[in-house]
């Protein structure tokens, strides 16, 4: 439990510890990825130690968000070399067992505790940094944008193209135009907009349904942003680009949950493939590493030293690593589908040590 708490502590304070590049390289290469230490922890006999150590490697050391640094390549290359070393030991044990007609090394992934799995769950206890009504702001801005587009399109469809129908004002200017509070009634305007009060709705409709003047006239100074801007203006073209969809940051954590035994059954041994890093780090390593274009042969290597005793669990460890990397990639893809603009803004679930308790 002390070792598990140490991994959870390093996972929590990781950004502070690795803020210095020299300290980051010393922690990763000379401690966590030191050959004997890596062999003994990655293929540890305790599934809980393996689970915490692998999540520290995957979500912290192996996470790449596009920020290049001098020591990033060296750390990722070292991590890949250690994973390939475990895979080579597993291949040797497997071929040795087949040659001697013995029981093959197990490749069944283990749960951290009997009947319990570490799952990523969302927690709503974190207060939004923008204020209590951050969720209402995103809904309000999107509704205002849709209402503004719907009001302008019927009267200008026959004269404007699709590019010209795109609103040239920001959401803040649209909001101030359609929902300008009356003098002396500035309080509770947000709640009136959410409840679609008759005053706000009638006022917004009156703005969108103003009759067109038969003779050309000079537009007022406050409505210059709604006029058609010439297409040769680069600044106006940039303003007409569609805005990125709004998204919210949530709080996630790894939780040790009881699950149905029928769900945890994985169907025996998994087929072990050469291990990989999380997808962004793997792609970065393939494009920037000097060794990426060199052919690598996965050949069996006889375990020596510390790996002699720990390599018997190498098959289970490699299967669990594949599950953790797949879980990480699935989480990233789901969050980007939900509106997160890039990997840099995807949340990192927190990791803590939970007390082992029986249900009830």
TrEMBL record:
<feature type="compositionally biased region" description="Polar residues">
    <location>
        <begin position="147"/>
        <end position="159"/>
    </location>
</feature>
<feature type="region of interest" description="Disordered">
    <location>
        <begin position="197"/>
        <end position="250"/>
    </location>
</feature>
<dbReference type="InterPro" id="IPR013887">
    <property type="entry name" value="UPF0592"/>
</dbReference>
<feature type="region of interest" description="Disordered">
    <location>
        <begin position="147"/>
        <end position="181"/>
    </location>
</feature>
<dbReference type="Pfam" id="PF08578">
    <property type="entry name" value="DUF1765"/>
</dbReference>
<protein>
    <submittedName>
        <fullName>Uncharacterized protein</fullName>
    </submittedName>
</protein>
<feature type="compositionally biased region" description="Polar residues">
    <location>
        <begin position="167"/>
        <end position="176"/>
    </location>
</feature>
<feature type="compositionally biased region" description="Low complexity">
    <location>
        <begin position="220"/>
        <end position="231"/>
    </location>
</feature>
């Amino acid at each position: 439990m002390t070792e598990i708490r140490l991994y959870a502590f390093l996972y929590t304070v990781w950004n502070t510890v690795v803020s210095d590049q020299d300290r980051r390289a010393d922690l990763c290469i000379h401690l966590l990825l030191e050959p004997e230490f890596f062999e003994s922890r990655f293929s540890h006999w305790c599934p809980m130690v393996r689970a915490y150590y692998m999540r520290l490697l995957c979500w912290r050391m192996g996470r790449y968000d596009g920020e290049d640094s001098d020591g990033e390549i060296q750390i990722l290359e070292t991590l890949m070399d250690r994973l390939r070393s475990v895979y080579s030991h597993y291949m040797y044990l497997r071929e040795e067992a087949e040659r001697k007609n013995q029981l093959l090394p197990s490749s069944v992934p283990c749960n951290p505790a009997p009947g319990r799995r570490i799952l990523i769950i969302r927690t709503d206890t974190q207060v939004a940094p923008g204020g209590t009504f951050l969720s209402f702001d995103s809904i309000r801005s999107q509704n205002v944008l849709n209402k503004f587009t719907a009001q302008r399109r019927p009267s200008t469809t026959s004269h404007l193209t699709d590019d010209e129908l795109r609103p040239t004002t920001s959401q803040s200017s649209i909001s101030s135009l359609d929902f300008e509070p009356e003098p002396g009634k500035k309080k509770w305007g947000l709640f009136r907009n959410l409840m679609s009060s008759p005053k706000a709705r009638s006022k917004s409709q009156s703005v969108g349904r103003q009759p067109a003047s038969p003779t050309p006239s000079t537009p007022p100074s406050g409505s210059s942003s709604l006029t058609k801007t010439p297409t040769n203006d680069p600044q106006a073209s940039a303003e007409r680009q569609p805005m990125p969809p709004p998204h919210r940051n949530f709080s996630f954590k790894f939780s040790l949950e009881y699950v149905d035994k029928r769900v945890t059954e994985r169907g025996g041994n998994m087929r072990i493939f050469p291990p990989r890093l999380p997808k962004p780090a793997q792609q970065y390593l393939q494009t920037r590493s000097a060794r990426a274009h060199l052919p690598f042969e996965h050949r069996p290597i006889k375990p020596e030293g510390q790996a002699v005793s720990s390599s018997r669990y190498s098959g289970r460890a490699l299967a669990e690593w594949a599950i953790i990397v797949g879980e990480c990639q699935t989480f990233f893809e789901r969050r980007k589908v939900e509106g997160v603009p890039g990997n840099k803004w995807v949340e990192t679930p927190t990791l803590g040590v939970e007390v082992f308790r029986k249900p009830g």
